[in-house]
Amino acid sequence: MARIGVFVCWCGENIARTVDVAQVAEAAASLPGVRCSVHYKYMCSDPGQAMVREKIEQERLTGVVVASCSPHMHLKTFRRAAASAGLNPFLVEMANIREHCSWVHHDRESATRKAIDIVRMAVAKVRHHHALEPIRVPVTRRALVIGGGVAGIQAALDIADAGYEVVLVEKEPSIGGKMAGLSETFPTLDCSQCILTPRMVEVGQHPRIKLYTFSEVENVDGYVGNFRVAIRKKARYVDIEKCTGCGECWNVCPWKKIPSEFDYGMGFRRAIYIPFPQAVPARPVIDKENCVKLLKGGCGLCAKKCPRGAINFEDADQIVEESVGAIVVATGYSLYQIGQDQPDPRLRGYGEYGYGKYRDVIDGLQFERLISASGPTGGELKRPSDGKTPRVVVFISCVGSRDNAKGLSYCSKICCMYVAKHTMLYRHKVHDGEAHVFYMDIRAGGKSYDEFVRRAIEQDGAQYHRGRVSKITQEDGKLIVRGADTLTGAPVTIQADLVVLATAIRPAPGVEALAQKLNIGYDEHGFLLESHPKLRPVETNTAGVFICGAAHGPKDIPESVAQASAAASKVAVLFANQELTRDPEIARIHEATCAACFTCYRACPYHAIEKVQLKHKWTARVNPGLCMGCGTCVAVCPSKSADIEGFTEQQIYSMVEALA
Amino acid sequence: MDALRQIAAERNIHAGAEARTYIFYQAFLTSVRRHGRLNELELTGLFKARSALADVDIPFMFKDAALAPALYQRKKLHLGFKSVRDRDVVRRIFAKCGA
Amino acid sequence: MTIAYYPGCALHGSSNDYEQSVRACLKVLGVELKELDDWICCGATAAHSINAKLAIALPARNLAIAERSGSQELLAPCPMCSMELMKAAQQIRSDDRLQAEISSIVELEVTGSTRILNLIQVFERLDLKPSKPLSGIIAACYYGCLLTRPAEIVRFDDPEAPMSMETILGRLGVKTVDWNYRTECCGGGKTMCDEETVLELSHKILSNARAHGANCLVVACPMCHVNLDMKQGAVNHRFQVRHDMPVYYLSDLIGLALGLTPQELGIDRHFVVRPEHG
């Protein structure tokens, strides 16, 4: 026998102004199954909640309907109130007579009638409510962090410092990411490596961080709290346990002119190399595409020189397995390729800027290496073509970004700031040099950012031209840059020695394949999708997988670090208990009637359905750890065996019938 | 860009230097409307006359006249111009387009 | 090989040296040109600057004539004409309502199915074997605006750094240079109504070609030819220089390499002529 309590809220004036709340309470009192029906000014307040608790105890209620605002607002509040009075929290239903009624109608009479109907439906639903218990899933309290740039490093340190083990996987031979290659960072002009390397060392030495470098995630199985990850350790050809990083090997390697990836082609490295001196781990790797011994045989000088016998030409890729409970994706970014050869047919490249044709047209990261004190030119800015000091440098913003015609519609966020930084660093090195910037807008929204740009212009003499560059050609060793200045309305031609293009930020290559392995979404540009852009920026729609840093979208270092800590805190929340508690309003399959057609298995967007063999037949079964309660399986099941707890078909039908 | 030019043409708004260009295009289309193809001599005559009148710039009429013998010598000046056979359809096309 | 042919007003007017060159050269290569019957002007810049509908209708009439003649392809050596024909064809193909309206206006059914070719594309299909080495020619290939732009319409070559002419000439052993004004504008049809701009632009083009070691220009557009050749004297006078740069049509150089005489190709009718070609 149902004993339902109805609590109608005035919500101050919000509901009461349009709906006759007293009348609704009176009408509800005569609905079948209703034991008591009251109204109050603010149901969510302490006295309001006390009222609910009292009535539950007094009237021995088996169900509660609160007619007030949206469940998004206060369902949790009333569930907690009910639970504290001893009533199962899932026997509480909210009838939204605010957003669905008083806020969208004007006529008092019809609004009140509608509110009564809404309450009637809610009561009908509650009569078929079952008590539900939260689902408990065991949690392996170890985390996987994919990507060892500043975001990955921050997340790994936070999680490890909170007391949990972290597996950090980085595909390059060293952690550090893009930040390790930068010269100085805005707005403080801190030396990038100086502030990063201590963190890198901390990661390398942390007792709870297991570091896999030169490795990639091969496969991911399982679900939140229980992931099984296969990691491919690529062949390094160097035993990093035996190696001490002494450098004898790379000093004797005869292949010296291989373009360095770390220097973005601005410098060279050897076939056996360490990407930069402060690498973590400080152990070399052999480039199998360029090592003569691996390709054809012969040489082997490095192995002969090595005092510890750490070089192993028989090395091969290895797959290792790790069990983790949470995954943080921090794969970072890459720069837009400016040439005409594009990986994506929608992008068209910028042939008019001559990148790839003229050696003195470079991109932002290449410029960073040229001005970095630890760069290929020792911090002296030299033109790639002839090694001379450039006296006139042109910086061009928005190359590839904000361009609907050639494919990338978004703003890359950090370029306005690093272009200003580049002009300052250039002027600090070449005191009589001219720095010109062609821009569309200046986006400097962070703390001290606008002041930083003004400093570049007012103190360091950077010349800003508002307009785009139409073409770059070369005459007599000078780059002729033709653009416009829309503020003066005149064309501008500059004879430059060096041109630096601020190219668009794109996600790291291969991230889409990784996202598919993890079952997380990505947008049309390849940036990973968050659960909610405002309120859940570091979670994904797959429970247990979190994202942070530039993999989510273009952002600067402070934001990447903040997001990394945010993701780490989400992991810590997940790990706070031995078990994971999830809302029980998920799908359930009635196994007796299930015909094992597995339509639900194919339809489920979260891969939450399993095929289970019972004694006498097969059945589909919902994995309570993964199901998000979307209801797709319920819609497609031909035998009506799938249902959602808390929103059963019987409940929905009864609501419809109550209206009729 | 073309949309702006077309709107300017409709509203008869022609800024200084471009006024001559507009006269040129109108002369061009006048000739095409009449013959189906462009009669260069007719175009030159119409353009020079109309723009000279518009700006009271008589010397403009006679500029380029020195080119005429050079063109004639190179057999580029066609005094016997032939229109298309079906000139009427061209007139109708112009009319239907409101031009 | 036979191909439908749309000369356009310029090639039958003061740029008939271009037509002479094209006809002579294609003839020895075994290509027969079938001129479209009773073709009309494509509208050029005048139409699209003043009336949008007329700008589609005039070329569409020619497309309809081409379709009726059974030709799937149409050669238009003037890039203004070829671009306007392609633009009209594309718009008609993509919009049924427009297709019906234009068909009614031009009084012939037009579907826009004809494939429009420029002169370079025709040469690309032919087997060119040089019979005479062209010594003393260092050519700067000038594409101007309309051969490669608007890129979405003409879809030909690379709009920033086209190489189709250089490739063809290379096959014939003709030396070409890399220079910076290959796709810059010459002033187009503004020769009469804005001569000052045309002279300035042409001067830059001629100067840059010379600065990069060329001793002549190669074009595939009658308007470019007029601005760079016929007006070269005016450029010289205006800027007090002597450019001395003959401007050849692409078919001129190919024709010479195949053994034709300058007179057969109409080279002697240009304004700037090398003494041995005059």
Share of β-strand residues of chain B: under 5%
Low-confidence stretches of chain B: none
Tell me the name of the CATH class of the largest domain in chain C: Alpha Beta
State the largest interface: B-C, 43 and 39 residues
Total number of distinct structural domains of chain B: 1
Largest β sheet strand count, sense and barrel closure of chain C: 4 strands, parallel
Total DSSP E strands of chain C: 8
Strand content of chain C: 5-15%
What overall form of chain C do the CA principal axes indicate?
globular
Query: Using only CA atoms, what is the Rg of chain B?
Result: 15 Å
Question: Can you describe this structure?
Answer:
The complex is a heterotrimer of chains A (660), B (99) and C (278). Chain A is α/β, with parallel strands linked by helices. Chain A folds into 5 domains: 124 residues, Rossmann fold (3-Layer(aba) Sandwich); 143 residues, 3-Layer(bba) Sandwich (FAD/NAD(P)-binding domain); 82 residues, Alpha-Beta Plaits; 172 residues, FAD/NAD(P)-binding domain (3-Layer(bba) Sandwich), CATH 3.50.50; 62 residues, 2-Layer Sandwich (Alpha-Beta Plaits). Chain A contains 18 helices and 34 strands. The two termini of chain A are 23 Å apart. The mean pLDDT of chain A is 94. Chain B is mostly helical and 99 residues long. In chain B, 67% of the residues lie in helices and 0% in strands. Chain B is built from 6 helices and no strands. The mean pLDDT of chain C is 95. By secondary structure, chain C is an alpha/beta fold. In chain C, helix 4 packs across helix 6 and helix 5 packs across helix 6. Chain C folds into 2 domains: 116 residues, Glutathione S-transferase Yfyf (Class Pi), Chain A, domain 2; 149 residues, 3-Layer(aba) Sandwich (Rossmann fold). Chain C contains 14 helices and 8 strands. Chains B and C meet through helix 1, helix 2, helix 3, helix 5 and helix 6 of B and helix 3, helix 4 and helix 6 of C.
Brief account:
Chain A has about 650 residues and is an alpha/beta fold. Helix content of chain A is about 30%, strand content about 25%. In chain A, the strands form twelve sheets. In chain A, strands 10-7-6-18-29 form a five-stranded parallel sheet. A five-stranded parallel sheet of chain A has the order 20-27-21-22-23.
